[in-house]
Amino acid sequence: MFCCRLCLLQIGCTEDGILNGIEATVYNNCGWCNNDNALGMALDHIDNAYYVPNWLVTPKACKTNIAANTATRSPGTCPGIFIMEGMIDQVARTLGLDPDTVRRANLYKKDQVTPIDIPLTYCNISTLWDDLYSSAEVESRKAAAAKFNEENRWRKRGLSVVPVRFWMEWGWAVPYTVHINIYAADGTVAICHGGVEVGQGINTKVAQVAAKTLGIPLDTISVKPSNTLIGPNDITTGGSITSELCCLGTLRACNELNERISPVRAANPKATWKELVAACNDQGVNLSVENFVEEKTDYQYSYNAYGVGCTEVEIDVLTGELQILRVDILYDCGDSINPDIDVGQVEGAFTMGLGYWLTEKLIFDQDSGQLLTHNTWEYKPPASKDIPIDFRIALLRDAPNPIGILGTKGVGEPPLCLSCSALFAIKRAIENFRAEIKADTVFTLDGPATVEITQQDCLVDPSEFYF
């Protein structure tokens, strides 16, 4: 994934932590080629969920001796949002305020405009924050963590809450083709669409939309692999938009089929689906249809997805080992087509982000730039023991998206950006121990916060090892 770093920072704010302006320079390590750099997406999302009336951000693409980057889940947006959360964290520490208080005070409100001129005509981030804060019992858990820290010398707990605003950009005419065939012999339906099933459930959602629109059982439908004969000019699968747009193409294609079938259905009101399809075929009705999705809106973005995550961790000060005790996430998925899939997407995205922020450290040869952590002996993606012990995911109820397809919202990438809450929770735990040993100085906790880094940042003094 892309690496961005913030330098040369100035923040203007009131004594209450209300942000007035930010001036920053953001550097991106592009490797030997800056063709794939994160700066565009990082800067587009650098404000995250916070209103700041004045911005001056200077991007710097840096050419280095390591391999070039490539995009993966939430490219650029993940480090961009983290940069903003780091700034909020620093403001809170400088002013002696609770970071949650500063975050809540600066959240976007309805009809405010982002730095890249996105009007927030529908903005519910404050409601999500308050709802999660209540359902996750954040205040009482903070008090419990403080009590635990007082009673335990070498184990410390920390808790952090982070919001996300992630804008979906299918407004710049992204093309996907959907082709549907109905087979007259048995009434089965085959669909080929321009997206690629990579575990996000796109085939299931497309089949659901077709089944509902045509009024037939789900097991009548099969989704075939994508191919360039059906969709020669389809765009990449990504951006958390492909499922939505392929569902839109399926909806339109099925509606066109319904229009063709309608006269035959009217003449045969008691016919089964199989009989109806056979009758259509006998009368020369074309049972193949193609829909080319190329949506355009007045803005490049289409809508915003919102979410809030709360992470509680416990660290071993002596070893740096970590347990993620509990994670609560409330995500606005609109009117979900398949809540089971979408909850799984939230879980998977967040867990993938835990690897980015906690375990997946890349080490390069300083002279040649060669990657040294090239297998799982040195490179550690998250495994079963890295998953939160208590993992609570909720989708916001009764919140259909008026702009989305069938009222839904994308879900593939935004929850990953909430995973930085684990890093800030670790920082809270480290800060508690450092305050206890009278070493509470300002420090930066960069990701990934590995076991070694966490232990070293605790500044443990061996002279304290006594009974």
From TrEMBL:
Residue stretches making up the Aldehyde oxidase/xanthine dehydrogenase first molybdopterin binding domain:
9-107
State the Gene3D superfamilies in the record. Aldehyde oxidase/xanthine dehydrogenase, molybdopterin binding domain
GO MF annotation: an example: iron ion binding
Instruction: Tell me which Pfam families the record gives.
Output: MoCoBD_1 (PF02738), MoCoBD_2 (PF20256)
Which segments of the protein form a coiled coil according to its record? none
**SUPFAM superfamilies recorded for this chain?**
Molybdenum cofactor-binding domain (SSF56003)
Q: Where is the Aldehyde oxidase/xanthine dehydrogenase second molybdopterin binding domain?
A: 134-388
Q: What is this protein called?
A: Xanthine dehydrogenase
> Which organism does this sequence originate in?
Geodia barretti
